[in-house]
Design brief:
With 214 residues, this protein is an alpha+beta fold. Helix content is 33%, strand content 24%.
């Protein structure tokens, strides 16, 4: 399912992120010292714009492009797992903000998406799961998450519990529990919004449904 490419994220914020990506890619590949000066200046302008638009310190903008990208600016990848048992979904309480989210996080290099989410669910909720299928791929900027100076693809995998479903908090979480969709706790909206949970239940109900993607 495609979304309106201009939806959700402020146009200026989207353009500033794109400008920084182009500048950093140019910095990496150019051999001309005069072009490098121009790319350096463009990068400074883009970082300043992002800091202003995102209302964050300028220092936070440094390092948005990961070193392993080898000069090709690409989105970060956030993977989330939908673990549903008896009509309830697994959520974990983040220590950083005290709010709740579907388990997951940044994808680690060297692991597949399935390996990443199976590890994340174990680390955050102490449940062993098997990733069954990918049910959604979202560009974060095109959905109603809070504005973010970083750029993300969010992958959602439906997971089955491999054993008993008794979650416990992990090192990065303070609680882990199952919740009914009509009784959700306060969500950590930068990580999970209610639409993510609705989509998870829809995917669980219709396992043959097409993967949603932007």
């Amino acid at each position: 399912m495609h979304q309106d490419p201009t939806a959700m994220e402020d146009t200026w914020l989207a353009q500033a992120k794109r400008l920084l990506a182009l500048a950093e890619t140019g910095q990496h590949f150019t051999k001309d010292p005069f072009d490098r000066e121009r790319y350096d200046e463009i990068a400074i302008i883009a970082r300043t714009m992002l800091a202003d638009l995102g209302r964050v310190p300028l220092s936070r903008i440094d390092g948005l492009i990961s070193e392993h990208a080898a000069g090709c600016a690409t989105p970060s990848i956030d993977i989330r797992g939908a673990v549903i048992c008896d009509g309830r979904i697994l959520l974990v309480r983040e220590r950083c903000d005290g709010k709740w989210a579907m388990p997951g996080g940044f994808a680690d290099i060297g692991n597949s998406p399935a390996e990443n989410i199976e590890r994340e669910v174990w680390e955050e909720a102490r449940l062993r799961v098997n990733a069954r299928r990918l049910y959604a791929v979202h560009h974060k900027a095109r959905h109603p998450y809070p504005a973010d100076v970083r750029d993300f693809y969010k992958l959602y995998l439906l997971c089955d519990v491999a054993g008993e479903a008794f979650p416990e908090a992990g090192p990065e979480t303070s609680e882990a529990a199952f919740f009914a969709p009509e009784n959700l706790p306060q969500l950590s909206l930068g990580r999970t919004i209610e639409a993510d949970i609705t989509a998870a239940f829809q995917a669980k109900a219709d396992d043959g449904k097409m993967t949603r993607f932007d």
